[in-house]
Write a sequence for this structure.
C-alpha cells in the first residue's frame, strides 16, 4: 500500500490491557492509544502553483495521533490507519 499525496499510513500502538495498579481490563473496553508508528508516507502535497511540498515524516517515526479520525484499512489481517499529515499532532524524538 503506497499512500498518495500527503497521506501517512500508521500502525497504532497496542492497547493497554493492564493498568498501572495491575488491574486487567477487557480488550474491547479499552480505547485506542494515541500513539503509532509510521508504516508508509505519500510523496507530499502540491500547492496551487504545482510545486511539491514533501512530507516531513518518514517510515519508522513514532507519532502522536488525534483521538478521532483517520481511515481504517485492513491489510493481511493487520489494521492500519491512514491520516493526512496535517491531522497528525506531533512526532516523538
Amino acid at each position: 500500500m503506497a499512500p498518495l499525496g500527503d497521506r501517512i499510513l500508521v500502525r497504532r500502538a497496542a492497547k493497554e490491557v493492564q493498568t498501572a495498579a495491575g488491574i486487567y481490563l477487557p480488550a474491547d473496553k479499552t480505547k485506542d492509544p494515541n500513539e503509532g508508528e509510521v508504516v508508509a508516507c505519500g510523496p507530499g502535497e502540491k500547492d496551487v502553483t504545482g510545486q511539491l511540498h514533501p512530507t516531513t515524516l518518514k517510515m519508522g517515526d513514532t507519532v502522536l495521533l488525534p483521538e478521532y479520525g483517520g481511515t481504517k484499512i485492513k491489510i493481511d489481517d493487520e489494521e492500519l490507519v491512514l491520516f493526512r499529515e496535517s491531522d497528525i499532532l506531533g512526532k516523538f524524538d
Observations:
- The beta strands are 7-12, 35-41, 45-46, 52-53, 62-64, 71-75, 78-84, 90-92.
- The two ends are 26 Å apart (CA to CA).
- The mean pLDDT is 88.
